[in-house]
Design brief:
- With 143 residues, this protein is an alpha+beta fold.
- Helix content is 26%, strand content 36%.
- The chain has five helices and eight strands.
- It has helices at 2-15, 59-62, 101-106, 119-126, 138-142, and strands at 36-42, 45-52, 55-56, 68-77, 80-88, 91-98, 111-113, 132-135.
- The strands form two sheets. A four-stranded antiparallel β-sheet has the order 1-5-4-8, with helices on one face. A four-stranded antiparallel β-sheet has the order 3-2-6-7.
Length: 143
Amino acid sequence: MLHSLADKYLCLYISDWGDRDIVTADRDSNSETKNVKYFFLSEGWAVSRVWASDGLWQVAAWRRQPDIQRLNICLTENNELLWLYRVEDAILTVEVKPTTPALANDTIGQVVLKRLITAEQVIERLGTAEAKCQLQNIRLVAQ
């Protein structure tokens, strides 16, 4: 049940990004898709630097900021909130840092995420026994 519930929610949420020209279709449709990637990030951490295939993301060269969105989906694991982020396909690596001095003193200063995951891997992760999925608006999922 959780697998199909998460699948519906991700497809619903992703379909709202049509105005940004990023589309992810569910498996049964024949529509064209653009690839996006995902990662989970602990509460209290934020994205710092971003790398694409040609190196460190340069706003002047790309003429825009990288497309990184925190979604309204989080997991609770070991009393820690892990938020789901969506990034555009051009992004290869993301550096994250703690946002508060207390976290910075208790943890390492920065982490580089090199393995971004697919939508299928997100759904798989949401379906694991160790994770609890918290949805903000269950009515959107049930439709």
